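Internal tracking record. Fields below are filled automatically when a chain is submitted to the structure queue. Please do not edit lines marked as system-generated. If the sequence contains nonstandard residues, flag them in the REMARKS field before resubmitting.
Queue: standard
Priority: normal
Entity type: single polypeptide chain
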Amino acid sequence: MDGNERLELPVADDALPFDPDETTIEDADVFDLLEPAVQEWWLEEFGEFVPENEGFFTPPQRGAIPKIHEGTNTLVCAPTGSGKTMSSFLSIIDTLYERDREAPDGLENSVYCLYVSPLKSLANDIHRNLEVPLAGIEEIVAERDGDESMGEIRHAIRHGDTASSERQKMLEETPHILNTTPETLAILLNSPKFREKLRTVEYVIVDEIHSLAAGKRGTHLAVSLERLEAMAEGEITRIGCSATIEPLSRVAEFLVGRTEPGGDPRDYDIVDARFAREFDLRLECPTDDLINTPREIVQQRFYRRLHEHIQNHTNTIVFTNTRSGAERVLHNLREGFDAYDEDNSGCHHGSLSKEVRQRIEERLKDGDLDVVTSSTSLELGIDMPHVDLVVQVGSPKSVAALLQRVGRAGHRVGQTVTGRVIALDRDELLECAVMLKKAQDGFVDSVSIPENAQDVAAQHVYGMAIAEIRPEAELKGILRRAYPYRNYSEDEYESLMRYLTAEYAGLEEKNVYAKVWRDENDPPDGEHHYEEYPVGERLIGKRGRLARVIYMTNIGTIPDSFTCDVKTRASDEWVGQLDEQYLDTLEKGDVFVLGGDHFEYRYRRGSKVYVDRTSARPTVPSWYSERLPLSYDLGCEILDFQGELLERYEAGGPPRVRAWLREFPLDDDSVRAIARLFDYQCQYAGRESVSTQDRLAIEVVRDRDEYERHYYVHSNYGRKVNDGLSRLLAYRCAQEATANVRVAVADNGFVLSMPLNRKVDIEGVIDDLESEQVRADLRASLSGTDLLQRYFRINATRSLMILKRYKGYEKSASEQQVSSEMLLGFAEDLEEFAVIEETYREILEDKLNVDEIEDIVAAIDAGDLSVSRRLLDSPTPRAFGLATLSASDVVLAEDESAALQAFHERVLEEIGEESMAGLTAGSEDE
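SYSTEM-GENERATED OUTPUT FOLLOWS
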């Protein structure tokens, strides 16, 4: 049927909101694919003709439904609220309804469709969305056919919280559509009875695939899908639903896997509707001078503007970058305005109880709340039809995160997505300006997918060996068909097998036992022989009578975490607690704030942290571990922006810069603040003090008060790269200066600090770096660090080297840490030990972006990236944030604002507009 033909609709013409004789429906061919009862339900539920859609379907629905109908693997990428999940389900429901109607005995008592969601709450939400179409279609069929109704298409949720009675019921009366999580799917694949119910699976929907692909949960799921494909009776159609992500081809290949090890990706199509909705985005700033305007005035203006936004809209979500920020914003709204109380406002984040979060979600969906504050917990696809504004406080750190968050507003195609970003810090103001402009231009940050993770491979190899004895070639093939293992080498596989078979001497003495056996199917007098396989074919099977129980109770990739007690070394006095993740950022000598006092970090033993009291300025901010890092791609775009801005500054000074910035989605205060920032910067330290894509700017400042020399490195590549690059340089500088080097890291650069009587040739240190040596040097710099200890514990637990649960006993995260510390030294001495190698791989590649660091060093070696050093009396305006890391809390840091203001005033005195010649004359030795 031609897409422009008029459609014969299965309802009376007068029931339609348009004249079918006069209206051409562009997506009639899509509509025609559906069964009549499904068509009728769709019209009753969504039948309004939407001019923006040119038909009945949204762009992702129009693109995806025919492809899924044909059984084509499909990645559907579209903004939140554009109907992408319904596009996946509709064709599947239609197919199941048709098959149920035509088969004499209806559908089999088994699973046809798996819906995999990263969130249990999201699975519940989709479950409710499924009930509506299924019940509606059944009612239509019953009315049309009298007493004969369609057979039931059953659906159910299965995850870690599902009661055992419900699980048993699913065996007897199996859901045709099963909603689950990646972890539960892995368990089901090893469940002797239920795995048989999965052999009939024809469709798998992976929702919110963008949030899975970038982590080990996604890696785990990718292998599970290959295991499912290997045992299914027919080919499985894979459907991925994603918010804005890039590159789509890589995510699609992650979804579909390989046809064979080393082969091509399975066939797929992409429905790219990422920009199917209109966005109204704007950056705002409470003042054009974030330095001299008193903090309390900034606060007042911010809350007044936020209040006005909320009052001018129906329902508003306010995103902050930390949980404490979300709590603080809600508290201050309620304290400052009579319009907000517990009845019409709320807070939602991961530290709140499940019951509190669900209550907030329900009230938000019902439109009962004027405003909800949140950190990241409301980002993913819970349907909130009444939200018409999203306010983001501070930088969300990537274009993808920005679009995901603001996409919560205007929850349907045809409605404009309204988002306002409010910046309270100059560095974030700059970030957000570039971010909004790039979002407007259609730019999206690229996703990085972990590869060859040995801990996840260990779980799946163990699981496959438990499920059945099988040829090793088959097991290896399943692993290598998963996208993250497409380049998995024979050496990596053999390293894994040496661990799983406990080939290392002394391993079993440490209570780490063999998990699998591998044998070349010896003749009958050998240890393992199976007649169904030829002699000489290498087989793999499980070891240990408790193997299945160990596997079922210990798998998964989400690490446990704990809080550490902080004690003083001098008196063993307990002074508070720190989140374990915060310790990732601490090195010996670092200073942090706890309970208003300053402490110098010395060492950790298990779950106890030992410190010394100090009056030194903090080097690691309190929010560091909680806040998302700036994406590397966006960091590079900011460097491009700075280069373009400098060209305009040179051509016409601040007026030319302001005129250019007014092409961006910024308010006038933001324009003036950014222009003033770079005007001060250039007048004080020259254009060469600003980093660009082809220049890395470094400033050296002698702090005589603290008796320290600070090297401010303006590497605007994001916190992950800066964390790795700073460790690399600190490692080299410490060797050259024979002194401890302290490091403070931010998204727009890092600071290396050492005693004033020590100095290094920073340019020489950088010039001596070699890209091929970066990985080895960075690895050496990690030896003995708390970061290595923590990640070894996580990977040892994921690899089932340390068991969280065994014979009814549950080992806490702090107990796991103690066990791992006892194992670490032993494991490091083992040659090519898979768990140690994975620990280093994860830190270097996933946490510190070693590949990007290698590229930066290679660019310096090739002369494509120059290094510019400036010796200054005090930090430049672009270094204010680096110099006051401890005072730049994410949202409204009243407790630290006084220190921040004092520092800014001191710097502004030095670069006062009447005397801008701040460059120090003479040499550094004077």
